[in-house]
Inverse folding.
């Protein structure tokens, strides 16, 4: 039997919450806040796990609590993302882009979710989505979506059949994922060892040179002078080619100080649970990059005309900034006589997905030499021998991608025209707070 959602609906609540009221609180009375990004995208796991919801709202600011078991549905985008919330004493509050639905007793919630994922409903949804900047379905139009409702017994039979098929599919995906994890762990350890070796080998060589010089000075019973040359000046040498014992010692010292970063990178990669807090992206970038000033380059922040609030783990995101800058200095800034620019540009309009999820767009760019020909995003995000054109990246590119993924964002390379002085441009998307 065909019925509209309105005809079988018992109760509904449209969310009402504001980003300015969100906190990352562990207080026992704080109310979990559910945004569109928290809803399920896959049919095999459509239950909401509120233990993983880290955004909260203080009870005195919470409005329209969902204190009953309900199906949560997104009213923005082309994917309804139906998700089941089982009320067990802890209420939730949702964004205004979500509606909570409670159906009559003879309706199985699991069956409704399966119906809302069906092609039949998908076609209706596509016809109802408004043609605006952010695709949206009006509440009244949503209530008029038609569902095919059989008897409760038939609903339950279809749910069991569906879940068995999804379980089999999930088991296959789990097996494949475990194999991928094994490969990734092996490559990760190999990459850390490779990074450590790359940093340590030059130090060992230069330290041996320094020891030889000091031994020679001791044999000649000369006083130590840090202005003495490491080697004689040759014809054609420039000022940059001339090196003293002092500059050699200073370079060894700087190199030794970079070794802890290898281990810190490895530690950062072990993060599975982020300690996030809501920040103004423009203000955060200015504060987080102020200690990276250098005579070789300047750091420029191009702010957004609007306030962009994002949720980040500051330690994890700091590693993203560090690795972007370190990669530019190590591989991009070849001519020390030039003055380089590292830019974090967040002035572009926000990015909206077909599902209606909103992202802040941060474009990292620098005017170094850029990546080698045919070096693609897959090379940057991985490590080891990944293509016939390159050997992948070091651990830095992998960390950048991994940390952004943990923040539920994404990374991609931007195409660059020949006349553009910024030869490296990387777009990073971060979920905006609702």
């Amino acid at each position: 039997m065909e019925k509209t959602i309105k005809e079988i609906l018992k109760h509904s609540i449209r969310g009402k919450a504001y980003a300015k009221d969100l906190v990352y609180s562990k207080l026992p009375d704080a109310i979990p806040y559910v945004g569109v990004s928290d809803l399920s995208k896959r049919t095999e796991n459509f239950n909401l796990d509120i233990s993983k919801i880290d955004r909260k709202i203080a009870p005195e600011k919470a409005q329209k609590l969902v204190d009953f078991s309900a199906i949560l549905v997104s009213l923005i985008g082309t994917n309804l993302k139906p998700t089941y919330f089982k009320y067990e004493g802890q209420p939730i509050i949702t964004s205004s882009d979500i509606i909570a639905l409670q159906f009559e007793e003879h309706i199985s919630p699991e069956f409704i979710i399966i119906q809302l994922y069906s092609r039949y409903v998908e076609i209706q949804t596509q016809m109802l989505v408004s043609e605006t900047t952010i695709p949206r379905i009006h509440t009244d139009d949503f209530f008029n979506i038609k569902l095919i409702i059989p008897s409760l017994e038939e609903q339950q039979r279809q749910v069991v059949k569906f879940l068995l098929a999804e379980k089999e599919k999930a088991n296959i995906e789990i097996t494949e994922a475990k194999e991928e994890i094994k490969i990734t762990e092996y490559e990760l350890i190999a990459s850390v060892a490779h990074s450590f070796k790359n940093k340590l080998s030059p130090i060992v060589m230069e330290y041996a040179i320094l020891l030889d010089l000091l031994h020679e000075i001791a044999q000649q019973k000369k006083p130590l002078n840090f202005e003495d040359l490491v080697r004689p000046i040759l014809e054609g040498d420039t000022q940059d080619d001339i090196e003293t014992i002092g500059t050699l010692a200073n370079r060894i010292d700087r190199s030794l100080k970079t070794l802890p970063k290898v281990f810190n990178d490895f530690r950062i990669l072990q993060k599975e649970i982020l300690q996030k807090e809501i920040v103004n992206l423009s203000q955060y970038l200015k504060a987080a990059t102020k200690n990276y000033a250098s005579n070789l380059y300047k750091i420029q922040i191009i702010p957004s005309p609007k306030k962009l609030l994002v949720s980040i783990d500051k330690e994890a995101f700091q590693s993203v900034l560090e690795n972007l800058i370190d990669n530019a200095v190590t591989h991009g800034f070849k001519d020390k006589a030039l003055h380089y620019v590292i830019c974090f540009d967040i002035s572009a309009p926000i990015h909206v997905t077909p599902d209606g999820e909103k992202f802040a767009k941060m474009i990292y760019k620098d005017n170094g030499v850029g990546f080698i020909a045919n070096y693609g995003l897959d090379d940057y995000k991985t490590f080891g021998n990944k293509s016939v054109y390159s050997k992948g990246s070091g651990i830095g590119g992998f960390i950048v991608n991994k940390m952004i993924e943990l923040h539920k964002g994404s990374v991609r390379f931007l195409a660059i025209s020949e006349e553009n002085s910024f030869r490296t441009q990387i777009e990073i998307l971060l979920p905006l707070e609702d």
Remarks:
- The chain is about 40% helix and 20% strand.
